[in-house]
């Protein structure tokens, strides 16, 4: 019975993977922030009978905070 060997990944390759993943996360957060900002503007312009603006504003604030965290590393 022989042991299955796992491929070795260098630290540089792991670092590159982390950078790609972080860039993807930043892009996703940016897209979500833009979409929620668009809908927030539309709701404010047309009126908000169910307080959706408040909920959407909180979500947009959270997304902005997460963008800042991702940008900071």
Helix content: over 70%
Spell the H/E element sequence.
Answer: HH
Give the class from helix and strand content and strand pairing: mainly alpha
Gap between N and C termini = 44 Å
On the 0 to 100 scale, the average pLDDT is 79
Largest sheet: none
The rough form would be described as: elongated
* Quaternary: single chain
Continuous helix count: 2
Whole-angstrom Rg: 20 Å
Beta-strand level of the residues, as a percent range? Answer: under 5%
Q: Uncertain runs with pLDDT below 50, 5 residues or more?
A: none
Q: Give the tally of β-strands.
A: 0
Structure notes:
This protein has 73 residues and is an all-alpha fold. It has a domain at 23-72. The protein is 78% helix and 0% strand. It has two helices and no strands. The longest helix is centred in the middle third of the chain and has 36 residues, at 11-46. The model has no long low-confidence stretch (mean pLDDT 79).
Question: Main attributes?
Answer:
73 residues; mainly alpha; 2 helices; 78% helix
Structure described in brief:
This protein is mainly alpha-helical and 73 residues long. It has helices spanning 11-46, 52-72.
Chart the SSEs and their pairings.
Layout: H1 11-46, H2 52-72
């Amino acid at each position: 019975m022989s042991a299955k060997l796992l491929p070795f990944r260098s630290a540089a390759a792991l670092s590159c993977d982390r950078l790609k993943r972080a860039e993807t996360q930043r892009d996703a957060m940016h897209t979500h922030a833009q979409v929620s900002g668009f809908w927030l503007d539309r709701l404010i312009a047309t009126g908000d009978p169910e307080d959706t603006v408040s909920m959407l504003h909180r979500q947009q604030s959270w997304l902005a905070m997460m963008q800042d965290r991702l940008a900071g590393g």
